[in-house]
Amino acid sequence: MHFSLIDPDPLRQGPNKAAKIAKYAEDAGTDGILIGGSTVFDQNFVDKTIQAIKSKVEVPVIIFPGGISNISQYADAIFFMSLLNSCDPYFIIGQQALASYTIKSYNLEYISMAYLIIEPGATAGWIGNANLLPRNKPKLTAAYALAAEMLGFKIVYLEAGSGSEKIPIDHIKTCSSILNIPKITGGGVENKDDARDFVDAGADIIVMGTFIENNVLKDNGNSLKVIIDEIKNTGNNNKKNYSII
Ligand code: 1GP
Q1: Nearest-CA neighbor of 144 among 94, 183, 106?
Q2: In the 8-state DSSP scheme, what is residue 6?
Q3: Nearest to 205 by CA among 195, 220, 193, 191
Q4: Maximum alpha-carbon separation in the chain
Q5: Were 25 and a residue from 30, 63, 73, 242 both cysteine, which residue would form a disulfide, CB within 3.0 to 4.6 Å?
Q6: C-alpha 64 to ligand 1 mean position (Å)
Q7: Is the CB of 15 under 6 A from ligand 1?
Q8: pLDDT above 50: residue 110
């Protein structure tokens, strides 16, 4: 699957522009819109952005929260996520505890997700005080991912940071070899070869943000469609059986 990430950030785009971006992404074949960002602090703006997007698209709109100010009753669901490799308990369980009553009162569907940040980590790594997983240590990433599965998380997100160098492929392959839960991957995907590599390594969902925000309004989503078509091209799927145990 393919998810499109839009940052509800007044410095980047207002609700109407965000809704146009989301519509182009939907027309290009995306399966869901993620709303969130590490530096989003205005809940009112998040509400308005989600309402504008919901008025234009049919695909699910899921909150990918950078913090407790990203919660909105207007979304279809929220990734109830824990940054497992943070050095600060606030990002592992503190914000989640503070958000829990609000999410329950909104009757918002929550999807428990382990969030793992690999070097270089970009803004998310810095804000989240992450002990970044080293690029040359895929087994460390897989150990965190497996622990997440054993702890009951429904999904794991392997993140290199928005606008950053991509996750090394062997991290995705190593996780694929031992996990049963789905793997979301993101950070730095910007062409169909990147996407193909991720799919073949075993990524279940690929998230793209920066490319979409920079391109879909310029080319009506045509370049995005090429990438999404590649992700969904199962006829040419070289997915391999990777195993480390
Ligand atoms: C960030 O993984 C997402 O959380 C998307 O990254 O902006 O680099 O596509 P990009």
Answers
A1: 183
A2: E
A3: 195
A4: 49
A5: 30
A6: 11
A7: no
A8: yes
pLDDT digits (tens, 9 = 90+) for 69-88: 899 999 999 999 999 999 99
Q: Any idea what the Cα angle at residue 210 is, between residues 207 and 215, rounded to 5°?
A: 110
Q: Check if 108 has its Cβ closer than 6 Å to any atom of ligand 1.
A: no
Q: How far does the centroid of ligand 1 lie from the alpha carbon of residue 162, in Å?
A: 4
Model confidence pTM above 0.85: yes
State the Cα–Cα distance between residues 220 and 209, nearest whole angstrom: 16
56 CA to centre of ligand 1 in angstroms: 22
Kindly state the average pLDDT of the residues 47-76: 96
The per-residue pLDDT for 235 is: 58
Counting ligand 1 atoms within 8 A of each CB, the residue from 2, 33, 115, 162 with the most, and so the one to mutate, is: 162
Distances (CA, A) of 110 to 40, 51, 115, 146, 193: 20, 19, 15, 21, 32
Q: Which of 2, 3, 4, 5 to mutate to test the pocket of ligand 1 (most atoms within 8 A of CB)?
A: 5
pLDDT the model gives residue 11: 86
Among residues 164, 86, 92, 81, the alpha carbon closest in space to that of 129 is found at: 86
Proportion of the chain above pLDDT 70, given as a percent: 96
Residue 130 tokens read as 């992450």
136 secondary structure, DSSP code: T
Write the residue with the smallest CA distance to atom 1 of ligand 1. 162
Q: What average pLDDT score do residues 41-56 get?
A: 94
Residue 151 is which amino acid? L
Q: Three-class SS of residue 208? A: strand
What's the gap in Å between 163 CA and the centre of ligand 1?
6
Q: Are 178 and 244 in contact (CB under 8 A)?
A: yes
2-235 homologous superfamily? FMN-linked oxidoreductases (3.20.20.390)
